[in-house]
């Protein structure tokens, strides 16, 4: 507790039994009223993803390779046992965590991570059972591998989301091997759709097509680090990092080409054009649903539905790493009609944003001393 917060707590102590976390709460003005941002936990090593267990506790990944259970009040548990070896270099490591839709019965936890192999690395997805004590993932098995492995430490994606039919979508990156996002015999730069056990659905768009991987749902993606199921429509929404400029939101449809690197609103970090790019549009490719000309460097994505701040209901939230803020998007149907940037005063790279079962937003900040934050109406 800071000396200032301690003074406040002393002053308030006689009347209010202030919770311990009150020391770290901060009030922030937004277009829709004041919100309170409360630090629930700190000291997390580059936390990447969080998911909620049925009792309100959370599972949080740390990029170097740990998965921890964190209570609703912010008590951080020891790293769980039974995790796979991860390739924790560059952007790689333990990245995404998601629960089985039948978690209450099967206790299956899904992990997305970077895995070494073939002198390179690529994204893998596996699942295992959370033991009753909450101390280990048991019988972990790999159910999906991005093949071939092409990464030297960049662009693994990865986000996981189940649709209402129980299909598992895996949002991947291009391993920073641009042309491969257009090559259907490779899984880099794709959105993949598999069954919960890793088998491939019979009705995938490239099933039975010569020279194409049957796991592919859509292609031409750069580096996808956000995905969420729209709570009203059941449609999968994704987003991806552009190069310098051109971060996108897409609603990927079966078999379609989302353009990278043939079509992009961005340029190389060197300032030169993307060599393969025809421009912002290219024949046979889908335009982005929404695009940022200047890259916030987006990561994490959550719909706000039946939340504590009624004026945010139906909004979409996206984290921003480079511009260090939270992005709030207002929708009219599927159309994004208004954008607000908020929480800049925190000065935090926001890696993940999730909507909690208590009707509040939860954020992870990307740092050696990463934080878990709760955002609620003040
Ligand atoms: Ca695109």
TrEMBL record:
Show which residues constitute the signal peptide. Answer: 1-22
Domain of life, source organism: Bacteria
Q: Does the keyword NADP apply?
A: no
InterPro entries (alphabetical)? 6-blade_b-propeller_TolB-like, Glc/Sorbosone_DH, Quinoprot_gluc/sorb_DH_b-prop
Instruction: Cite the entry's keywords alphabetically.
Output: Signal
* Domain Glucose/Sorbosone dehydrogenase as annotated: residue spans: 44-374
> Does this UniProt record's set of keywords contain Ribonucleoprotein?
no
Q: Write down what this protein is called.
A: PQQ-dependent sugar dehydrogenase
Name the species this protein comes from. Answer: Verticiella sediminum
